[in-house]
Every structure is written in C-alpha cells, then in structure tokens.
C-alpha cells in the first residue's frame, strides 16, 4: 500500500478504525457488530490487535475473519455469554441521549407513537449484562436527542437510578458516528466528544447534536489506518466496499 493510498483514506475507513478500537483490550470475548462498518471493524480487530476475539455468522457458528467455521455456538451458550458479560455488542440507535440511553422502539409518545421501529428487543439485557457500544452512520439532532422517547438500551443515569444491580456490569465504551467518536469520561457520565474524524469540526458536531455536548479544548483526530490495516480493509475484508453504503462522506 503506497503513501498516496494512505492519504486518500475515506470517512468510512476512519469509521471502521474507530469501531475496531471498541474491542481493543477485550480479550477472549464475543463480538456482536450490527451494521456493515462495525462488522468490518470487528474483523479488522481480530486480524490485527485482538486475535482472541470471537466472531459469529449471526446464527450458531463461530467463524474466522474469512467466514470459515471455527466452532459451534448454540443459542443457549450464546445467552450464557450475554448474561455472563462475555460479549461486547455494537448496536445501532434511532435515538441516543447525553447519558447513553438508546431508543430503537418508537418515535413519539408510547401510547400513540408517530413511528413504530424495531421494538425493544434485547437492548435492556445487553446494556445491563455486557459492554455495549453504538454505531450511528448519520449523526443528526434527530438521533442525538436531549431525551429519548423510550429507553431501550440503558444509559448511565438510568442504570444509576436503578441501583447496584443495574450498574454492576453496565458499560458503554464508545459511540461512533460518521462525524466522530464519543465516550462518557465526564464526572456525571454524560457524553463527551473524544475524537473528530478528519475533515470534521467541533462546530459541525455541536450543530448536529440535540444536546449540549462536552468537548475538551483540543479534540484529537480519530487515528487513521496503517498501510497494513488499509490493505486488509480494502483487499481482504471488504473488497466490495460495503462500508461506503453506510457512510456518504
């Protein structure tokens, strides 16, 4: 991979790197990426700095980065990993607020919503039993809201209000969007801008966020892929460029 290729890194490829970094240091844990960019990121992590990461085909088989079967993961065993905290999910969010509460169920009042979405599904169990990060391919005030219309994934304030039983295994390592990376490294565990993707400004992020966002005086840029990582993304993991379908820039 030559220098010019590295210089032409796309926004989608920065997002892949940011998603991959969510699993850094997790060890032997089941990765459950939801979406094209997180899936490419999880496979990249497995091929580089997270060799112990477990990947599945989304059904009952453990697979390698090439998709070849490596083991059997029946549903009962999958649930045991979830409830035991041995899984790190990267979910989507129709809405997410400053404390990391996530909504994928409905928009508007619960009794008469303006839009019906996926439903609560496994979001509460995920967030209370194992690490959950989020991938938001379209950062906007409609997604990053002051308060979600319904809590599906449990945020820091909601877990804290529920007491020790809810906070024991609760962890939201990061939120990745097409504009930057966010964490909750603040005194009240509210969302903080951790890094900007190159070409994005803090003002752009603030304008696209529906709540007052904490940001340090100097926000770093999201790290770019190394030549080896870029070659893996483009030539091995995602030659069909599925990542570009989720990120426009």
From TrEMBL:
Keyword Ligase: no
Database matches in SUPFAM superfamilies: NagB/RpiA/CoA transferase-like (SSF100950)
A GO MF label: CoA-transferase activity
Superkingdom classification of source: Bacteria
SMART domains: CoA_trans
Keywords recorded for this protein, A-Z: Transferase
Family per record: Belongs to the 3-oxoacid CoA-transferase subunit B family.
The protein, known as: Coenzyme A transferase
Organism of this sequence: Streptomyces filamentosus NRRL 15998
